[in-house]
Amino acid sequence: MSTTAPEKHVSKRGCLKSRRSRIVLAVVIFIVVLAAVIPPVVVTTLRKKNSMGPKSKVFVPLYVYPAPGAWTPLEEVISAHPDVNFTVVINPGSGPGPNALPDANYTREVPNLASHANVRLLGYVHTTYATRNVSLVRKDIETYAAWPSASSNPDLAVRGIFFDETPQQYSPHSLAYLQNLTDLTKGLNGFGPDPFVMHNPGAVPDSRYLPTADSTVVFEETYTTFQERHGARLLTAIPESNRTQLCAVIHSVPSTVDGSKLRGLVKQVRSVADEVFITHLSSDYYASFGTKWAEFVSLMAA
After folding, report:
1. Assuming Cys at both sites, which of 3, 65, 123, 293 could form a disulfide with 144, CB separation 3.0 to 4.6 Å?
2. Helices (H) and strands (E) in the chain, counts
3. In whole angstroms, what is the distance from residue 21 CA to residue 15 CA?
4. What's the pLDDT tens digit per position in 132-144?
5. How far apart, in whole angstroms, are the C-alpha atoms of residue 80 and residue 294?
6. Count of alpha carbons within 13 Å of 231, Cβ hemisphere only?
7. What angle do CA 130, 169, 63 make, to 5 degrees?
8. pLDDT of 185-198, one tens digit each?
9. Can you name the residues that pair with 275 across neighbouring β-strands?
């Protein structure tokens, strides 16, 4: 009896040690597995979240007359994507129009757009490549700025000016012309606390013009032309610039560019421009919304 009891006791202790060893081994294996598996999962998740690159604003040349319901496709995507910022250009009559206020449809719809926190409205003004009489340009700017007071409605307002037909080739006169208009716009109270200035030469301008605007449309052409000019490399080659200063407009995208191909195009343009407009329409592309409009905005939200 005295020899068997200790042997039984040792056996139990050995069993406990064996169980503890198995538990420790299982924990070690589990940790190793986690170390091997979790990082790729995390990396994959991050890649999915960031797979479209930097966020960009949706640029919208809204030359659609605001008859009842005409702006609904825009309002729907604005509401559906509160995390996407929209820069929207309105153009009542090749500018603000001849009167102190636009017509009743504009006075009804502009405040609706302006009420969205993710929308920046700009008023259209053309400069005819810095040759238009500067007094007429100044009058257009001041008319937009006076909308809130003239209407007694603070929501009937734009937050800056979109200058169309700005020059591409450099001249001291043109530089002074544009700087003068920027200074005027930035100094008017009617545009809110942070007036925004945008230029549209429609092509890559002399880089000396870039500081006179907050954003510049450096490409406004067809999809085919974008491809022929080596796509995003065209924009990255602009001297003394960065993507936050640039806007790209691509129209006439072939219908075959959809799904993953459209996703790739949006990703490519987002990588080089902070404001982007892409449409499959090949005519009236600023006066209507194409069938891929909602898909484009969804990709901009990704």
Report:
1. 123
2. 9, 8
3. 10
4. 999 999 999 999 9
5. 10
6. 10
7. 55
8. 999 999 999 999 99
9. 57, 247
